Amino acid sequence: MKVWIAPPLRSYTHQARFVEVEGSTLREVLGHLEENYPGIRFRMIDEQDKIREHIHIFVGQWFICW
C-alpha cells in the first residue's frame, strides 16, 4: 500500500513523501510503518492506543497520514 506522509512526519521517513507498507487494516499499516520508521507511530497514536486528535487518516486511492 502506498502511504503519503505529511511534512511534519517526514523526518521519520528520511524526507520521503510516499512510502510502501503492507497491511489490510489500519492497525497492520501502522505496525508496518513503525517497523520501518521507528517512532512514527507514537506521533500518530497516543498511550491509550487512540489516534491523536491532530492526525487525519484518509483511506481511498491512497492511505494518508496527516
Automatic annotation (TrEMBL):
Superkingdom: Bacteria
InterPro entries reported for this sequence: Beta-grasp_dom_sf, Mopterin_synth/thiamin_S_b
Protein name stated in the entry: Sulfur-carrier protein
Organism: Candidatus Hakubella thermalkaliphila
SUPFAM superfamilies, per the entry: MoaD/ThiS (SSF54285)
